């Protein structure tokens, strides 16, 4: 009000990260609730000065629908899923063409790719964000584009873990375990489920969506299908899933384990895999753990390493392999057995021809059978054979 009087005209207020104070405190719900109350008092003061405010814009990561800001400032227009603003905070394909053509072509040369192949890879790594249900337009992460086109390194690399991780999500993960669902195909989600309504009842889907790890893939009559937007985010999400599911597998452990597999050092790979499964927080040894839980750990381990392309439950004519990983050097076909043997797992891979579609790659193909002991949740046996 004083500033408006001094200038003789209404003021413009810009508030970035309006949600940060609450998000930083999600590990302490009473504290987060108290902060929410303080923010409510602040926003009420803004509303009472409405005649002195020409324009107010607030941005943040998380849409806390009951943060009190939305009741204190009930004259706000929520632009979160408004198609008119869906490309406001990212680059479209057309904007890349118009503003970065010289840099894009120079980077394609550095990477030794044709321009079309380069753009396809760029799209795979950094595009995919869709911010409104009634638009098909997807946008690139502008920070990732800047960090990619600046140094023009001879390969694409993830920058998300250094620039995009949500503190609210990290604080959420200190209190909750993410379940082992396929986050690349989350179906039947309502728009209200995407909001963070109650601090005491946070959902993993809403936290991942608000944190940028999930985006809109489709919308049918108000029901959303969500998925991971791109490879950069997929790598970081799997790294988070691995870290919080195992409580001990950091990036160094992941790197050494995956590198051993890529180098075909199977003794080291199996030893590190045994150690990883031995430390999983599965509860009592009497607890029944489904095969999918063992498979999920292996998936996030390999899929969080950017040198592997990983497919879980790869569908074939005679069934589906539990997991297939592919590097530039080789293909690895995994089958897991609970209450079975590693030899039975290998026999199933061969009998059902899980590896046959990969002969066309011309790469060595390694068949890997893993057997788990349900009495103590350990990796009891591991065998590998090369496809003849």
Automatic annotation (TrEMBL):
Signal peptide range in chain numbering: none
Every AAA-ATPase-like domain range: 3-70
Alphabetical list of InterPro entries matching this protein: AAA-ATPase-like_dom, PDDEXK_9
Superkingdom field: Bacteria
Protein name: AAA family ATPase
């Amino acid at each position: 009000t004083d500033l408006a009087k001094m200038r003789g005209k209404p003021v413009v207020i810009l508030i970035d990260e309006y949600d940060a104070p609450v998000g930083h405190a999600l590990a302490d719900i009473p504290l987060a609730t108290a902060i929410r109350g303080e923010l409510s008092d602040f926003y009420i003061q803004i509303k009472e000065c409405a005649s002195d405010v020409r324009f107010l814009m607030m941005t943040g990561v998380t849409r806390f629908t009951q943060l009190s800001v939305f009741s204190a400032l009930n004259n706000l227009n929520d632009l979160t899923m408004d198609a008119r603003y869906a490309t406001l905070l990212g680059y479209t394909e057309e904007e890349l063409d118009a503003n970065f053509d010289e840099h894009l072509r120079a980077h394609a040369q550095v990477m030794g790719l044709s321009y079309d192949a380069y753009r396809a890879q760029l799209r795979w790594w950094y595009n995919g964000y869709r911010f409104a249900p009634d638009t098909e337009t997807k946008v690139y992460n502008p920070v990732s584009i800047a960090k990619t086109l600046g140094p023009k390194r001879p390969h694409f690399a993830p920058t998300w873990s250094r620039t995009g991780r949500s503190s609210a999500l990290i604080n959420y993960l200190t209190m909750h375990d993410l379940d082992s669902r396929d986050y690349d195909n989350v179906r039947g989600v309502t728009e209200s489920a995407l909001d963070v309504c109650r601090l005491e009842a946070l959902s993993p889907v809403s936290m991942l969506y608000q944190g940028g790890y999930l985006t809109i893939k489709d919308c049918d009559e108000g029901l959303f299908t969500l998925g991971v937007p791109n490879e950069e985010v997929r790598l970081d999400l799997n790294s988070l899933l691995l870290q919080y599911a195992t409580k001990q597998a950091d990036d160094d452990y992941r790197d050494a384990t995956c590198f051993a597999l890529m180098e075909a050092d199977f003794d080291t790979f199996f030893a590190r895999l045994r150690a990883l499964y031995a430390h999983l927080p599965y509860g009592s040894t009497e607890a029944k753990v489904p095969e999918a839980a063992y498979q999920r750990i292996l998936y996030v381990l390999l899929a969080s390493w950017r040198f592997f392309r990983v497919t879980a439950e790869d569908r074939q004519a005679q069934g589906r392999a539990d997991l297939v990983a592919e590097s530039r050097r080789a293909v690895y076909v995994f089958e897991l057995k609970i209450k079975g043997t590693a030899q039975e797992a290998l026999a199933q891979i061969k009998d059902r021809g899980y590896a046959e579609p990969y002969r066309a790659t011309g790469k060595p193909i390694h068949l890997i059978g893993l057997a788990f002991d349900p009495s103590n949740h350990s990796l009891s046996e591991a065998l590998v054979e090369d496809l003849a």
